[in-house]
Amino acid sequence: MILEAERVTVPVAHHGEGPYWDSSTGRILCMDVLAAEIVVVDSSGGLSRCKVPSRAATVIRRRRAGGFVIATERGLIGADDELSTFEPIADVIDDPDFRTNDGGCDPLGGFVIGTMAYDERPGAGAVYRVTPDHRVVELLSPVSISNGVQWSGNGTRVYYIDTPTRRVDLFDVDPHTGAWSDRRPHIVIDTARGYPDGMAIDEEDGLWVALWGAGAVNHYDAKGRLVESISVPGVTQVSSCAFGGDRRDVLYITTSRQGLTPDHEPTAGAMFAVRTRARGAVASEFAG
């Protein structure tokens, strides 16, 4: 089955990434990564932009402290509800040749963030976990372009994308420490269907995988079988997706115009959306 997403904004990002549904305010947020800005779309479709201290990859709610946690170029910072004041949380990397790239929170409240080299050289990155008490623990290395990460509904498994592998891999998760083990392939993306990038997960442990270079999001069931594909018209560089809306049944999709000339794919960088028959899983928040 093939569905088609609808464009819901003008182009709002040069390199759109990390969509996040803020259920407390009914807003969808996404990152304009290299511009160091968070784009906010409210319930009426109004747009605003919030400047952050450095290039940023991910924004997620904080459970106890309130406000948000943001993965910046080399670490985590906290932000207030208005995304206007900031405080340091943890430094993850200190090499100017690297940056963070996509992440999420596990059911224990840890923040998991991957890294990549700016020149995208193979095997230079890693995946880290920032614990609720702000310790930084390496989970996985080496990786090349760390992208989507999502946890199963019962918290015992994690799904992870290192884009050049063209796979979604599956790990077991330690219920006490959040550590990963027993890596194995879960989904293999055919070479004709682009590269897996960011992804979302639904209540049935189905994965919705953005396909960079293919202009689509693929939906796979809990066993890794392709169920349907969502076409994103006029755009090839589909970067990530997240469920939102009052019933968590709207899939928001970010896109990028990175590397494109001004007259090529004029709607690249816009946000798209499609109503699905699935409901997204409730995203975990950072406990630190």
Give me the number of helical elements. 0
Helix content: under 10%
Q: Beta-strand percentage?
A: over 45%
Spans of at least 5 consecutive residues with low confidence: none
* SSE ordering: EEEEEEEEEEEEEEEEEEEEEEEEE
Cα distance spanning the termini: 41 Å
Condensed summary:
This protein has 288 residues and is an all-beta fold. It contains no helices and 25 strands.
Question: In words, what does this structure look like?
Answer:
It is a single chain. This protein is mainly β. It is built from no helices and 25 strands. The strands form six sheets. A five-stranded mixed β-sheet has the order 1-22-21-20-19, with no helix packed on it. The radius of gyration is 17 Å and the shape is globular. The model has no long low-confidence stretch (mean pLDDT 96).
Question: What descriptors fit this protein?
Answer:
288 residues; 25 strands
Q: Which secondary structure elements does this structure contain, and how are they paired or packed?
A:
Layout: E1 2-4, E2 6-7, E3 16-22, E4 27-32, E5 37-41, E6 47-51, E7 56-61, E8 68-72, E9 75-79, E10 86-91, E11 98-105, E12 111-117, E13 125-130, E14 136-143, E15 146-151, E16 157-162, E17 167-173, E18 180-188, E19 195-201, E20 207-212, E21 216-220, E22 226-231, E23 238-244, E24 250-255, E25 271-275
Parallel strand pairs: 1-22
Antiparallel strand pairs: 2-25, 3-4, 4-5, 5-6, 7-8, 8-9, 9-10, 11-12, 12-13, 13-14, 15-16, 16-17, 17-18, 19-20, 20-21, 21-22, 23-24, 24-25
